[in-house]
Amino acid sequence: MLGREGLVNGGRIKLYCTETNVAEAWTRKEAFLKALGHGLARPLDSFDVTFGPGESPRLLRTLGDPSEADRFSLHALEPEAGYLGAVAITGHDWHVRQVTWHWSERHRAGRGKMERS
User: Fold this and answer.
1) Is residue 52 classed exposed, middle or buried when 0-12, 13-18 and 19+ CB atoms within 10 A define those classes?
2) How do residues 51-81 score in pLDDT, each as one tens digit?
3) Tens of pLDDT along 85-110?
4) What are the backbone dihedrals phi and psi of residue 28, each rounded to the nearest 5 degrees, phi first?
């Protein structure tokens, strides 16, 4: 990802890269690195993730330990309209549910509690 050739999806160069494509690829790669505990010490081009219109989040391939692609699942999040996120989890039998919190006016003022929707 984001190498000399541009944005790569499963070995295919995406010629039409939108901000959303880049954000999807970045958040999915970042989620996987955080799940491994490696951070950016591991090169971003050492594994591929899906991104783009109609692509379900998943890890396509990894260098070094090919079994990583089968061991982890990726899940897309939309924390707020116009924002993207992702989470990587060991295993595939997970149901990820996103919960949105709405802050009360009192809490925004620095005192009070959260309200859940």
Assistant:
1) middle
2) 888 889 999 888 888 899 899 999 999 888 8
3) 999 999 988 888 888 777 677 666 66
4) -70, -40
Q: Which two tokens stand for residue 5?
A: 């050739």
- May I ask the CATH architecture of the domain 8-116? Alpha-Beta Complex (3.90)
C-alpha 37/C-alpha 39 separation (Å) is 6
Q: Which of 69, 77, 102 is nearest to 24 (CA)?
A: 77
Torsion of CA 22, 28, 31, 33, to 10 degrees: -80
- 8 Å CB contact between 58 and 78: no
With left for phi above 0 and alpha for psi between -120 and 50, is residue 64 left, alpha or beta? left
Q: Read off the tokens for 117.
A: 């929707």
pTM comes to 0.73
